[in-house]
Each structure stands twice: as C-alpha cells, then as structure tokens.
C-alpha cells in the first residue's frame, strides 16, 4: 500500500468519524441538560465525563487535535468543578459551543 493510498483511506476514516459526531454531540448535550438542571447528577455527570473523554481520545486518533483539546478541556472542567454553579454552567456552555465548532469540517 502506498503512502498516498494510506492517506486517502485515513481521510475517509476521518470523514466517517466526523459524520458520526452530530450523534455524539447530541448525547453530550442531552447529558449536559440533565447535569445542568438536576440536583442529583452523579450518574449523568459520570456519563458526560466518559463521553467527553472518549471524544478527546478518538478525535486525537483521527487527527482532529482541536476537537480533542476542547473535549478534554470540558471533561477537565467538569471533574475539577465537582459541582455545577452558574459560572461553571457558563464556561461549560462555551466549551460545548467550541466542541461543536471544532467538529465541523474545515472550510
């Protein structure tokens, strides 16, 4: 297999990964809606952190470093804050908007 063909195959895999991103982001948004409005957030918060962790790792694998960095920042913010206050909610909303932007194809 030539490097050119390998590059094309990797690009196809990256595009396929991007096509699946709207569903992943929808799940993240649904979990965030629960976490940001509920008093008891244990399990949804864990699931949200896991989803963000998965995106951070897989995006890096598929050559999407910005998406990976934003997902990691969101995960880190949730873990560090422990609870979701008003300031934390605003920061998380910004990070989720950045996550969506980073998931879009260039151009």
Reconstruct the topology from this structure.
Blueprint: H1 3-37, H2 42-61, H3 65-81, H4 86-103
Helix pairs in contact: 1-2, 1-4, 2-3, 3-4
Distinctive features:
107 residues; mainly alpha; single chain; 4 helices
Can you characterise this structure?
This protein is an all-alpha fold and 107 residues long. It has one domain. It has helices spanning 3-37, 42-61, 65-81, 86-103. Helix 1 runs antiparallel to helix 2 (42-61) and helix 2 (42-61) packs antiparallel against helix 3.
The biggest beta sheet is recorded as: none
- Taking Cα atoms only, what radius of gyration do you get, to the nearest Å? 15 Å
Q: Structural class of the helix and strand makeup?
A: mainly alpha
Span between N and C termini?
A: 29 Å
Which geometry do the CA atoms define? Answer: elongated
Mean pLDDT over the full residue set: 91
- Assembly level: single chain
Helix count equals: 4
Number of domains: 1
Strand content: under 5%
Helix proportion range: over 70%
- pLDDT < 50 stretches: none
Tally the beta strands.
0
Q: What is the chain-wise order of helices and strands?
A: HHHH
What is the gist of this entry?
This protein has about 110 residues and is mostly helical. About 85% of the residues lie in helices and about 0% in strands. The protein is built from 4 helices and no strands.
